[in-house]
Structure formats: C-alpha cells, structure tokens
C-alpha cells in the first residue's frame, strides 16, 4: 500500500515536470500594427527567438498574432491567449497595477521611443483648448490606449487634474489605418486623430492636415511608447524561452541601428504596408525616433495616472513595472 502510494506521488511529480518541460520552447506573441513595435517585427522576420533557442539546444515554437489597440492586447494577456505582447506604457501601467501579487505583468524590454502626434484636418484647431463638443478624436481604444492616456495628461495640464478626462467623451474608437483613411478623405466622422507612425507621417503629407500636439510636447522630451510585456509566472516557468526573447529583442535593436534599409524592408513586409521603402527609411531616420530596449522617460506617465486615480499603486521607479533582469541598465 505504501509502495503504491509512493509510486502515485512519483508519477504525479513526473507529470508536473513533463508539463513544465512542454511549456519551455513555446511562446505566443501578440504584436500591434505600426513602426512603434518594429523590433518585434524584426524578431519575427529574422526568426531571432528561434535562433537564440537553437544556440541553447532548445527548439522554440513561436506563434504570432496581430491586434489593434491596447485594450484588446491586454485582454489576450489576461486570458492567457498570449505570453508576450506589444503594449503602450499607459496600458502597461494599468495591467501592472491590476495584477500585482497575482499574474504580475511587467515589461520585458522597451521597443523604442517613437513619438505619437495628435493631428487635425480642421484649421480652427491649433491647440488642445480649441477642441470642442462638435469635434471627434480617433484613438485605437477610447481613454485606455497609450494615446488616450497621453490626451488625459495633456488635458490635465491645460485644465487642471480634476478635468483630466475632459476629452474622453469626444474620442472615437478606430484602428489607425481606418482613421488615417478618414482623415485624408476629409470624412465628417472625425476631425482629429491621435495617431502613430507611420500613419501620422502619411497624414502630414497632406497640406490640409497639421500637427496639434505630440507626445514630446506632453512629456517634455522623447519617451518610450511601446514595450514587450509578459507575466512573472510565464517568465519563471520558461526561463530559457524568456532569455531567448530578451536576446532576440537586443539583436533586433542592433539591426535597426545599423541597417535602416533592411529594417524598412522588414517593416513593409511584416505589416503588409504599401508605403515606399524610402518613405519608411525617412521615418526611421527622423531625429525624434530611436529604437532601444532600455526605457526612456516612462515614469512621468505612471506618476500622473496614480495622481488622478487611474491606478492605485504609485510606481517609484521604472524598475517597478519592468522585470529587473539587468541591474546595470540606466533607464527612466
């Protein structure tokens, strides 16, 4: 009887070990459209996760999906449909705040500092205070997207913290590609679009569209816009796969830095873009654009979101919502 019980326990242990072993070597990644997550597109195109796994003797099955908007991406992370995902700093702070001491979602790495612009085709609108009840602002996810959070920050600066959500009711949820088409066509549905790259650059090619505000204006300088995020549990259960993801992102950053033409070609290929290589290369060469896995100027948004009550826990450092894999990194 005792031997049978011990055998049962041993089989149970083996089953747990087998499940853990099966977990290593598979990663489900959800990306978003746009140049802001170029590093992940390079990782996918060049099969960099698979290459780093192979170096460690671990075949890695990488499964990819692409969605539009931070809210949808957060849902995939929370449901377990994705292990790693591209999200903006605003959505990251929200999911970090709500899952502390549970799944504990944090950023693996920054994906770059690519500014986002609020643009308008209405000549009446010169600054945020010109936006009125008759106007409509396209964002990928009302209030909760990266652009939505930045607009709240801009509203607080213009009208005071109590009015941070003043413009939320004027927002319309719309994918960036659809909003760009509407703006260029002069549609009556929207007259502003809080955009991202490459769409904002396409829009500004039209002389009837102008920039009202940028993330650089709101945050006082360049800042990381998007990150790759995962849960602490997935990280601890899959240390080799996690390490391969981190190493792949670092390699992708080097490629973008050293070969702009190849990076542009990869973006066009992976996003199915019809933009010319020269146009994309021009964006990548913009002095406001950079790609680094080290976070830049992110804490300010977290401090604001806590101050107005959007998140309950105040981050004291960028390391609170990033995994501390390299204590020597000098992020912000």
Automatic annotation (TrEMBL):
The keyword Ribosomal protein does not apply. Keywords: Signal. The keyword Signal applies. Residues 1-23 form the signal peptide. It comes from the Bacteria. This is ABC transporter substrate binding protein.
């Amino acid at each position: 009887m005792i031997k049978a019980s011990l055998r049962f326990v041993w089989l149970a242990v083996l089953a747990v070990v087998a499940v853990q072993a099966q977990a290593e070597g598979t990663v489900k990644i959800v990306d978003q459209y746009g140049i802001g997550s170029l590093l992940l597109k390079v990782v996918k195109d060049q099969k960099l996760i698979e290459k780093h796994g192979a170096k460690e003797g671990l075949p890695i099955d990488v499964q990819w999906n692409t969605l539009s908007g931070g809210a949808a991406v957060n849902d995939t992370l929370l449901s377990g449909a994705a292990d790693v995902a591209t999200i903006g700093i605003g959505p990251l702070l929200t999911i970090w705040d709500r899952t502390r001491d549970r799944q504990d979602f944090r950023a693996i790495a920054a994906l770059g500092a690519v500014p986002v612009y609020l643009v308008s085709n209405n000549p009446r609108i010169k600054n945020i205070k010109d936006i009125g009840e008759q106007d409509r602002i396209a964002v990928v996810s009302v209030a909760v997207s990266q652009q939505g959070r930045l607009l709240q920050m801009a509203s607080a600066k213009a009208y005071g913290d109590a009015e941070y959500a003043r413009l939320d009711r004027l927002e319309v949820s719309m994918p960036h590609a659809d909003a760009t088409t509407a703006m260029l066509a002069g549609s009556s549905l929207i007259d502003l679009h809080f955009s991202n790259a490459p769409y904002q650059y396409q829009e500004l090619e039209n002389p009837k569209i102008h920039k009202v505000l940028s993330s650089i204006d709101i945050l006082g300088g360049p800042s990381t816009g998007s990150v790759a995020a995962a849960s602490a549990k997935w990280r601890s259960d899959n240390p080799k796969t996690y390490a391969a993801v981190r190493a792949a992102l670092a390699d992708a950053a080097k490629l973008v830095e050293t070969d702009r033409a190849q990076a542009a070609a990869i973006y066009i290929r992976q996003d199915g873009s019809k933009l010319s290589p020269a146009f994309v290369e021009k964006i990548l060469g913009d002095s406001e654009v950079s790609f680094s896995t080290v976070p830049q100027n992110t804490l300010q948004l977290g401090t604001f979101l806590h101050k107005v009550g959007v998140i309950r826990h105040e981050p004291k450092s960028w390391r609170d919502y990033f995994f501390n894999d390299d204590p020597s990194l000098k992020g912000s």
